[in-house]
């Protein structure tokens, strides 16, 4: 009886597993065949005639197809899908590079910046009151009352003043120094480095003429919301947009009287940590606005550290061919952004949290995030420009707040630079499909931990070199800075 049962079960097992034998109809996977591209599964699903997709749906499925959905299909399908993604991404890269690089080709931004700097603040001059030779407060005021006024209010100049200039200062409160008891009491008052917590908000009392007329608003503190100015980074500290400020006049005579009144009544003092002058110039020949900011830092050690920041802005469009090309590329970029957003949403929905485990998936997510940030910031900048052009240029008797526009334009350029960088890096995702680049990628992955170890060792040596140089030469040479500035 047992022998009969064994024969029955053995016959059924042979019939069941005979399909998987080498002689069966299943495709054979040779030893040298890549198992990733092999047809390991032969799943046949009967088609339902009532649920067949039409040609439009099939086209959309092929259009949104990615290599992630083609894992179980043949190698030819994966190659076709990769070529499709590469062609679409090549169009995206072309649009991004056109938006980023074409304006630099027809806009002479560096030329205009260099001309403004050399014209208003010459680097080489025999005059002791030039901007580059300011090292104390008397020299600062001599420059403001002479060279600054002469450069700003020139007649028949190519660079015309837009609106009113503004002069502003920030001050700190006096604190008790932590000194030994032997130090006299009159030496214990200190004015530290500027910070928002130590900012002085008390009104300034004129020393000579108690009833100032032209500069009356400059003697009381006002917040950053009233001034409408962003923080200003300097060499010593970062200064807030609040402080004591005065909008200067439209003519040289009125501005000279205002500044003389400030200087005579000791508007700046020992607690002053920075004097900032903002103004905007316009050149009709180049159709450029130049937002200029002069910063005079007065640290607690004494002296003055001067710096100038010039931001050229192209705000009034002339509707040239290059501008139309950039505008069309910006519209097309919105279509690409929408396409990649939908594509990545589909990938996240299909793959779940495993989507964020892949390196190139993270790069895709970063590129899309930068695209969205650039689009949003570009729209915000355009709205700011439209508002400023209506208020700041039409009315000359106000201070045009171009500083905020220049700051936001700088942030847009930085985001656009990051977008171009990571977009070009992403090309390696498609190049790695070839055998040579695949070997290079595998080599990098194999040596990843060694590269990380080398980076750590190099960072330690670099940090030691920077710290040693700062300690030895930082007090005697201006070329040696702190660790964060040097690194």
Automatic annotation (TrEMBL):
Entry's family note: Belongs to the polycystin family.
Transmembrane segments: 86-107, 324-342, 362-380, 415-431, 451-473
Compartment(s): Cell projection, Cilium membrane
GO annotation, cellular component aspect: ciliary membrane
GO BP annotations, alphabetical order: detection of mechanical stimulus
Lineage, top ranks: Eukaryota, Metazoa, Spiralia, Lophotrochozoa, Platyhelminthes
Protein name (record): Polycystin 2
Keyword entries, A-Z: Cell projection, Glycoprotein, Membrane, Transmembrane, Transmembrane helix
GO MF assignments: calcium channel activity; calcium ion binding
Predominant location: membrane
Residue stretches making up the Polycystin cation channel PKD1/PKD2 domain: 324-483
The keyword rRNA-binding is annotated on this UniProt entry: no
């Amino acid at each position: 009886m047992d022998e009969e049962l064994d024969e029955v079960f053995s016959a059924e097992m042979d019939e069941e597993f005979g399909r998987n034998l080498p002689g069966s109809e299943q495709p054979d996977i040779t030893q040298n065949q890549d198992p990733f591209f092999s047809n390991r599964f032969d799943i046949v699903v009967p088609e339902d005639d009532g649920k067949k997709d039409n040609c439009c749906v099939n086209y959309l499925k092929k259009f949104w197809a990615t290599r992630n959905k083609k894992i179980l299909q043949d190698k030819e399908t994966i190659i076709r899908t990769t070529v499709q993604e590469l062609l679409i991404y090549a169009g995206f890269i072309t649009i991004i590079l056109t938006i980023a690089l074409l304006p630099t080709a027809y806009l002479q931004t560096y030329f205009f910046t260099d001309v403004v700097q050399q014209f208003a603040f010459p680097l080489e001059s025999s005059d002791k009151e030039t901007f580059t030779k300011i090292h104390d407060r008397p020299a600062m005021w001599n420059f403001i009352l002479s060279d600054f006024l002469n450069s700003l209010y020139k007649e028949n100049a190519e660079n015309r003043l837009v609106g009113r200039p503004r002069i502003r200062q920030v001050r700190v409160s006096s604190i008790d120094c932590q000194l030994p008891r032997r130090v006299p009491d009159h030496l214990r008052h200190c004015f530290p480095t500027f910070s928002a917590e130590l900012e002085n908000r008390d009104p300034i009392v004129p020393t000579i003429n108690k009833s100032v007329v032209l500069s009356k608003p400059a003697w009381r503190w006002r917040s950053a919301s009233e001034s409408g100015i962003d923080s200003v980074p300097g060499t010593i500290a970062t200064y807030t947009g609040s402080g004591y400020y005065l909008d200067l006049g439209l003519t040289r005579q009125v501005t000279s009287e205002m500044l003389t009144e400030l200087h005579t009544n000791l508007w700046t003092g020992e607690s002053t940590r920075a004097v900032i002058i903002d103004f905007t110039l316009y050149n009709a020949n180049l159709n450029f606005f130049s937002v200029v900011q002069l910063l005079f830092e007065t640290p607690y050690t004494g002296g003055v550290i001067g710096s100038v920041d010039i931001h050229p802005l192209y705000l009034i469009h002339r509707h040239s061919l290059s501008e139309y090309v950039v505008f069309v590329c910006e519209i097309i970029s919105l279509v690409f952004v929408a396409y990649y957003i939908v594509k990545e949403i589909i990938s996240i929905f299909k793959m779940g949290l495993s989507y964020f485990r892949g390196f190139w998936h993270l790069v895709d997510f970063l590129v899309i995030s930068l695209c969205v940030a650039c689009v949003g910031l570009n729209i915000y900048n355009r709205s700011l420009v439209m508002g400023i052009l209506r208020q700041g240029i039409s009315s000359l008797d106000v201070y045009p707040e171009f500083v905020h526009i220049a700051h936001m334009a700088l942030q847009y350029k930085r985001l656009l630079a990051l977008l171009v960088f990571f977009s070009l890096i992403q090309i390696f995702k498609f190049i790695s499909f070839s055998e040579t680049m695949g070997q290079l990628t595998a080599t990098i992955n194999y040596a990843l931990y060694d590269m990380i170890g080398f980076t750590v060792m190099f960072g330690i040596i670099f940090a030691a070199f920077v710290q040693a140089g700062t300690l030895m030469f930082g007090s005697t040479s201006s070329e040696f800075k702190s660790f964060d500035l040097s690194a």
